[in-house]
Amino acid sequence: MSVEIPSDLPQGRARSAPRRAALVWPHFNARSLTVWRRNALAWRRHAASSILANLMDPVLSLLALGLGLGLFVSRIGEYSFLEFIGPGLLAGSAMTWITYDLTYGCYDRLHWSRAYHAMIASPLSVGEIVAGEFAWQATRTTLFGLGFLALMAPFGIVHSPWAVPGTVVITLLTALIFTGPALAVGAAARAEEQLSYYFNLVITPMFFFSGVFFPLESLGPALRQVAQFLPLYHLVELARAFILGSPLPNLTTHLLWLGLFILISFLLPGRLLRDALERIA
């Protein structure tokens, strides 16, 4: 006999209450910070290797493409190829940091360690668990983003005094936008192999066609229109404005799109996580 998990009440205090809402919103409060603390303590045990592993990929890409391939690429506007891809790699890497960590992390906490089942048996609600995951990904991604910015600085990529606060803004926005989908995919997956569908069909194409490595003007009109609907494109444009000091005439449009993506991210994971907890009871 399965236990029905309410969407808006702590499981430990209202175990048999009926569902009150179809949607489960992130519920940010003091209890949600216990999820953040749990993740932080688990991460602290391998923090050094985590930082090294997550920063190595964008740094190697920056060196191999920016300094290697950049010798054969003419300037893109007023910037060298190295300068052009640096901010784009920061935004794109932030997306992948969140996606790889949370899709597998969610799947692990549902199927293997069953940490989510332990959480929901406490006074924590599903909405508070989701909020704690958002808070942790924002913290972790901001830490990595500032580390990558510090590694970019010696190469002359950082031109703007707004680079540090801008990096915080970019990584926080990226966490708000991509945490929800990653958590939803991890909750919906019935087998670990299914997680790769999201990487291969969504994340990888977005990484390569959002203006990280070349301006969208290089694409045909149809692909250019599609790319402008991708959240990473808007984050890349903001990253270049903050780090390079490049003009951003469509700031309001970028922010409106990002606001819509954040709303979608908040809507996605709660109900799927609640249903997964009931399914894998």
Outline the structure in words:
- This protein is an all-alpha fold.
- The protein has one domain (32-212, 223-279).
- Helices cover 67% and strands 0% of the residues.
- It has 11 helices and no strands.
- The chain has helices at residues 32-44, 47-68, 81-112, 115-120, 126-152, 163-188, 195-208, 221-227, 231-244, 251-267, 269-279.
- Helix 2 packs across helix 5 (126-152), helix 6 (163-188) packs antiparallel against helix 9 (231-244) and helix 6 (163-188) runs parallel beside helix 11.
- The chain starts with 31 loop residues before the first helix and ends with a helix.
Name the features.
single chain, globular, 0% strand, 67% helix, mainly alpha, 281 residues, 11 helices
**Total beta strands:** 0
Binned, the helix content reads 55-70%
First-residue to last-residue Cα separation = 9 Å
Q: Biggest β-sheet: count, sense, barrel? A: none
Overall tally of structural domains? 1
Secondary-structure-based class equals: mainly alpha
Radius of gyration: 20 Å
N-to-C SSE string, H for helix and E for strand: HHHHHHHHHHH
Total number of helices: 11
Ranges with pLDDT <50 over ≥5 residues?
Answer: 6-18
Dominant shape: globular
Q: Which strand-content bin applies to the residues? A: under 5%
Query: Roughly what is the average pLDDT, rounded to an integer?
Result: 91
Chart the SSEs and their pairings:
Elements (H helix, E strand, L loop, with lengths): L31 H13 L2 H22 L12 H32 L2 H6 L5 H27 L10 H26 L6 H14 L12 H7 L3 H14 L6 H17 L1 H11 L2
In short:
By secondary structure, this protein is an all-alpha fold.
